[in-house]
From TrEMBL:
GO annotation terms (biological process): definitive hemopoiesis; embryonic hemopoiesis; macrophage differentiation; monocyte differentiation; neutrophil differentiation; neutrophil homeostasis; positive regulation of hematopoietic progenitor cell differentiation; regulation of neutrophil differentiation
Region listing for Disordered, in residue ranges: 757-782
Organism expressing this protein natively: Electrophorus electricus
Protein name: Fibronectin type-III domain-containing protein
Residues in the signal sequence: 1-25
Length: 826
């Protein structure tokens, strides 16, 4: 089946090729229209004639089809015997269309002829016709118009028509392709009405522009006038003498004149003043209402009726007559700190009020005060609008006057308020309004307020030259301050005014608008191994462009491992501890404000490393310290007893011990040894003091002991010794000593001839050693009788004449080994 279909397709393709070749060999049809270019929207008739010699139609049953832009259109035969087929297009609305004639055999059609038809419009109506009179030689009237949309391949001709009030008419033909024409002087009337229009013509019709009613002189642009002289006839006025250019000097009619005057002093309101009026050339124009003593720059321009303005003339300068200053000044007086040497440091600010007139270019101010009712003292003469001076304590008013070469203004009295400890305003805040203004608001602190003073200054400029102020009413707690520079810091202060003084100031700093800082700080590095400290300086105030909200430090190593550290706005340094030795790092500091951020330059640095010398410096002390620690620990464990006795010396408790237990070795363990003893040392705390003295010294000691405050009753002592139940005998002392010796033995000769000393051995009932009591309770003192053999005595007792050695042996002498060592032989 597919093979059969391919064969049929090949036969049809061969037939079509033969058919096409035959058509190309000889024309079979002719397509005809009255014109290939027709008006847009008109009717178009076309016919297709099939020739008899056409090979396609010989002995063939055929039919004809006509197509308009590939759209089949019904056709009719003109006669049954002829071969002409006709069509009619009632509305040709395409700018370009193709008409085709097809001969069809069965289901196959072929184009035997084709024709392209174009549609065209009449020329568009010319628009925006204007004419301007040129008064420079040669005098011409230049007329221009807009031709509208250009027609394709259709030539259009234009003509300029000028008609006067009479029957006179002029027709001017511009050059091909030009849409303007210069009418010569012969076809122009300056002060009469002219009617002007343009006509466009092409092959399909014509069109005419709107007729313009023209007064030529009203279209003329005059040359710039010339100011011949500016005079000063009276106060506040300038007289201008002027004329037209030489080529236009023939004009004598009144012209509209405009004079622009601009003051040349930037301190005064720098605004232009324009005066308009009608005047004839060569006349004098007087302009009044000017400032006195001011240099003005004058320029002038003219026009005829509603015509265009001329250019401004060359400027001319003149000075108005000078007068003394008038009006009052707005003042603000501040006392800076407490008085020193009976003088305040004062600062006076002022500005002109709306009624103030300087009346001169050079103006100075005089600040003075009355020291006495008849003596006025000037403290400041300046051309600025502020003054700082010393004010005596007793002065209550300050006087301010403005002065020029013509005179001096009336004085402005300024009261001096000395009390400044009054309440300030509350909740002062600033809100940006625009790039050049801010809104300042606050809350009144007291109903006794009489007004406010708002003061602001540029923080980056000199304080004395940039302070501005505004005096406000007591009911006004907000103000919009304009004329500020964006991205610059300003300091705003508000003072509350009371009847008795000025309140403390409330100050806040603000920006009208913020953006990223202009510069970024430069990073500084400081090594203290193994760390790095990054630091930077603060950005200058004029380059911050806003409040610094913080910093960010970015740093990354060779492997692009990035870390970020956020830093508060007040901090200007950071220590980095996570750096790897021998690694190269790149650092970047980003500075941020509320308006944006700025990145600084990238700085590369290697992380600090520890060299061999530093390793030795670290390791040697560490090793020595470990060795000493080891030795100390070893010594502690090996010499436990010695260390224990050194740190915690054993002090016997006399209440829970006896002399028998106090061996000489144990009692002397805690006594430091001295290489050289120059004086006898008295040993306390359970030790016997053995003093060897001369007879004279012994006599002094004996006398001293006899005169001591210790009281001794021998009978009571004997009773107390014999009866243990009455051992609570006390010895009174006038003053208790902090330390009480337990035993003192004094000897200077043979033991048997030693005198009996006063009692010196006391035993305390307290369990705490070395502590005295308010009422000490000690055993009775004992003394040894010189005639008794020490070896025969085994306890202390009183010396009686009938004392028997056998009866008093109650205890062995071994209980007192130290006493035993003192035994002497006859």
């Amino acid at each position: 089946m597919a093979l059969c279909w391919n064969l049929v397709h090949a036969v049809l393709w061969t037939t079509a090729c033969l058919f096409t070749a035959d058509v190309r060999a000889s024309s079979c049809a002719e397509l005809h229209t009255p014109s290939v270019v027709v008006p847009f929207g008109s009717q178009v008739a076309a016919s297709c004639y099939i020739k008899e010699e056409c090979s396609l139609t010989k002995d063939q049953d055929f039919h004809v089809k006509l197509y308009y832009n590939n759209i089949l259109i019904h056709s009719n035969k003109t006669s049954q015997d002829t071969r002409i087929y006709e069509i009619l297009i009632t509305n040709f609305t395409d700018t370009r269309a193709v008409l085709e004639c097809h001969v069809c055999l069965s289901d196959y059609c072929k184009v035997v002829d084709a024709l392209e038809i174009k549609a065209s419009y009449p020329p568009p109506v010319p628009q925006n016709l204007t004419c301007i009179l040129n008064l420079t030689k040669p005098i011409t009237l230049l007329c221009k118009w807009d031709p509208g949309q250009k027609m394709l391949d259709i030539p259009t001709n234009y003509t300029l028509h000028i008609e006067f009030s009479g029957s006179e008419r002029f027709i001017y033909v511009p050059a091909p392709g030009k849409h303007f024409y210069r009418v010569p002087r012969a076809g122009i009337t300056f002060f009469n009405t002219m009617h002007v229009y343009v006509m466009a013509v092409n092959a399909y019709g014509n069109s005419t522009s709107e007729t313009q009613e023209l007064w030529p002189m009203k279209t003329a642009k005059l040359d710039a006038p010339q100011i011949q002289r500016v005079g000063t006839g009276k106060f506040g006025c300038l007289e201008h003498c002027w004329r037209l250019s030489q080529t236009q000097g023939w004009i004598t009619r009144s012209l509209l004149v405009e004079i622009r005057l601009k003051p040349m002093d930037g301190k005064v309101l720098d605004r232009e003043q324009v005066s308009s009026r009608k005047a004839r050339p060569t006349s004098t124009i007087e302009v009044c209402g000017l400032l006195h003593g001011m240099i003005y720059q004058s320029s002038m321009r003219v026009r005829y009726d509603t015509g265009p303005w001329s250019e401004w003339s060359h400027p001319t300068k003149a000075t108005t007559p000078m007068k003394a200053p008038t009006g009052r000044l707005v003042t603000w007086l501040k006392l800076l700190g407490p008085p020193v040497n009976k003088h305040y440091m004062a600062q006076l600010l002022w500005k002109p009020s709306l009624q103030f007139r300087a009346n001169s270019m050079n103006l100075s101010y005089i600040v003075s005060y009355m020291r006495t009712p008849k003596k006025k003292e000037s403290v400041c003469v300046t051309e600025l609008q502020h003054c700082s001076f010393q004010l005596p304590v007793g002065v209550s008013k300050v006087s301010l006057s403005a002065m020029n070469t013509a005179g001096k203004s009336s004085s402005t009295e300024v009261a001096v308020y000395r009390r400044k400890e009054l309440d300030p305003v509350r909740y002062l805040h600033v809100l940006p309004e625009s790039e050049e203004s801010v809104l300042i608001e606050w809350v009144s602190p007291s109903p006794l307020i009489t007004g406010y003073v708002l003061e602001w200054k540029a923080s980056w400029e000199a304080i004395s030259d940039s302070i501005s102020f505004e005096i406000l009413d007591k009911n006004q707690t907000s103000l919009v301050v304009s004329g500020l520079e964006p991205y610059k810091p300003y300091e705003f202060s508000v003072y509350a005014k009371y009847k008795e003084g000025i309140g403390q100031s409330s100050t806040v700093m603000a920006y009208t608008k913020e953006k990223a800082p202009s510069v970024s700080p430069k990073l500084k590095f400081r090594e203290f191994r193994p760390y790095i400290e990054l630091s930077w300086d603060e950005i200058p105030l004029q380059e911050k462009n806003g409040f610094i909200t913080g910093y960010k430090v970015f740093y990354w190593d060779e492997k692009n491992n990035t870390r970020v550290i956020d830093i508060e706005g007040t901090q200007t340094s950071v220590v980095l501890k996570d750096l790897h030795p021998f690694s190269m790092y790149e650092f970047l500091l980003m500075t941020s404000t509320n308006g944006g951020s700025l990145n600084g330059s990238i700085v590369t640095m290697q992380a600090p490393v520890i060299d061999s010398f530093e390793i030795v410096l670290f390791l040697v002390p560490a090793c020595v310290g470990l060795i000493l620690l080891f030795i100390g620990v070893f010594a502690c464990f090996s010499k436990n007893e010695c260390l224990k006795k050194f740190l915690w010396p054993m002090i016997p408790d006399p209440a829970n011990s006896s002399i028998k237990k106090w061996t000489t070795t144990d009692s002397l363990l805690d006594i430091p040894t001295f290489k050289e003893v120059k004086e006898p040392v008295l040993v306390y705390l359970s030790h016997f003091s053995l003093l060897s003295s001369s007879e004279s010294e012994l006599w002094k000691v004996d006398k001293k002991l006899k005169s001591s405050k210790w009281t001794y009753d021998r009978c009571k002592a004997d009773e107390g010794h014999t009866d243990s139940s009455h051992d609570s005998r006390t010895y009174n002392s006038g003053q208790m000593n902090e330390s009480v010796p337990y035993a003192t033995v004094v000897f200077a000769g043979p033991y048997r001839s030693q005198p009996v000393p006063p009692p010196a051995y006391l035993r305390s009932d307290s369990t705490q050693p070395l502590l005295g009591e308010e009422e000490p309770s000690s055993p009775l003192p004992f003394k040894m009788c010189p005639k008794v053999n020490v070896s025969e005595v085994d306890h202390f007792s009183t010396c009686e004449e009938n004392l028997k050695t056998v009866q008093i042996k109650g205890s062995l002498l071994e209980d007192f080994p130290m006493l035993r060592s003192l035994e002497t032989q006859n």
